[in-house]
Amino acid sequence: MTEKVQLPGWDLEAIYPDAAAWEADFAKIRPLADRFAAYRGKLAESAAMLAEAIAALDDFERLGEKVYVYAHLRSDENTADSANRARVDRVCGLFAELSEISAWFEPEIMAIPATRMAEFLEADELRLYRRSLQELLRERPHTLSEPEEKILGMFSDVLAAPGRTFEMMNDADMDFGKLTDGAGRRVPLTHGSYRRFMEDGDREVRRRAFRRMFGAYRKQRNSFASTLDATVKRHVTSARVRHYPSALAAALFPDQVPETVYHQLIATVHEELGALHDYLELRREVLGLDRLDMYDLYNPLLPECRCDYTWREAFDTVKAALRPLGEEYGATLELAERQRWMDVPERRGKRSGAYSGGCYDTYPYLLLNFNGTLNDVFTLAHELGHSLHSYYSNRTQHYHYADYSIFVAEVASTTNEILLFEHLLAHTRQPELRAFLLCHLADEIRGTIYRQTMFAEFELAIHRLTEEHTPLTADLLDDTYFQLNARYHGPKVQADPLIACEWARIPHFYYNFYVYKYATGMSAAIRLADRILRGTATDREAYFGFLKAGGSRDVLDIMRDAGVDLSTPEPVRAALRYFRRTVEQLRRELGR
Ligand SMILES: [Zn+2]
Predict the structure, then answer these.
(1) Can 272 be counted among the known catalytic residues?
(2) Annotated catalytic residue within 52, 77, 272, 383
(3) What is the pLDDT of residues 201-225, one digit of tens each?
(4) What is the CATH number of domain 13-143?
(5) Is the pLDDT of residue 5 over 70?
(6) What DSSP designation does 254 have?
(7) 221-271+430-592, superfamily in CATH?
(8) CA–CA separation, 280 vs 5, rounded Å?
(9) What Cα–Cα distance (Å) separates residue 525 from each residue in 22, 351, 409, 462?
(10) Measured in angstroms, how far is the CA atom of residue 382 from the centroid of ligand 1?
(11) Distance, CA 536 to ligand 1 centroid (Å)?
């Protein structure tokens, strides 16, 4: 406890020295919105006019982010403080009021006649914005007439209803009752506690939780099938209406990711399912079970190692692990500490978990709840990966291009985790710790590449069924899911038939082809960590090129220049070979 008192907090005064300074900026937001709105109807007048309008929108959004970030970080620091809460509410209220402020903007740009736009794109005044204008114009063939867009806009809230209904059922209405946990306590079974039940050492406790959870979904499966069916129909219909060849093509269009990337991911993971089956077989042996069931996949294979880190040790370990990134990166880590980007200790009222957050005009802050576990050290490395990615992109790019796409958002953070894993493994001879680390990594890759690809394949299957006008009934969804689950987990897992309705509880199936990015992101990270550890100075420079790129180029180009060509199956294949080696090493470490 004595150390907790000394754990560092973040320096939010660097954003605003006091509440009055925040108020002063808050008061500027509406005038900035008005200044931007004055350009309505004038965009086609000249290149200079269009450039001014884009800059005015940037000014409004940029200050809005800063004002919001401060309110939000202050509120997370102490969620019980009503002054903090009030600031967040006021910002959100103002943004809601101004949410329509830019609705006219993109349609007005798209309505600029093609010949005039061609001149604009050559004009010096618009040089900075050329890329973002071209991005917008790519959407022209998929944009409908003004009255059509208007009608679709009016229906958008109604069309989102099935997704909202799913959330309501899943988060509010589903009741899983109470269960006895491993310590003999009666506790409510919830989405949060389910994870702890699955980690319980007592198989019977796990089995009961599993059957209770999926039994509850099974009872509601027709309702869940209906919300999912409607959501997939929405994706498919919207793709048709907007002239895309398929729902998948429509979903990948904004990132300019070809559909082959998606199909290759699935095909490559199929090739390497054997490695997953080997890992599950090892798991079965270590757990001493005749067969594995779905509730035997998340309980720790090995006892948690009793690693206890002080904050100093944790930070220094991460710094040492990231030393292969070079002096420049190390100096930035020291800067993060000196400028106090991090709020480290756990406190009453503080938001739980960990994140990296900030904006163009603030430090890339980190909220942590540090308790000294090995897991906390991994979290620190992960969140620093996000923060330094933001730091380099913000410093290198103009505000307009500083934000990076979701497609690459987890790459830098995961690269740091892999580097930390390699560092710890290289510096420990203790067999229990080595086995623990290898197991931790294998589980991460299983959860991020194999499981998310299984989800991605399911998503593709249900969209195709809908494209062929096959209604997604509960039976069809159950069958499709059960078969995929059997294929991915292999013959050594005899799944409880209730797993068939797992599709009913996965929110990501409502996100329109989102989860494949987890698998490609981790594959990229494994490849990059390898180049950083075993490559040349040029490889490391290339990695910095990615950190500094923000959203200034297409995601596949950014990754290719950093040394990962995600348009080929090679990065995923290499990541799964790395998984296979990890499992083999784990088997040796366990003497099996
Ligand atoms: Zn992350």
Answers:
(1) no
(2) 383
(3) 999 999 999 999 999 999 999 999 9
(4) 1.20.140.70
(5) no
(6) G
(7) Oligoendopeptidase f, C-terminal domain (1.10.1370.20)
(8) 43
(9) 38, 28, 11, 29
(10) 6
(11) 27
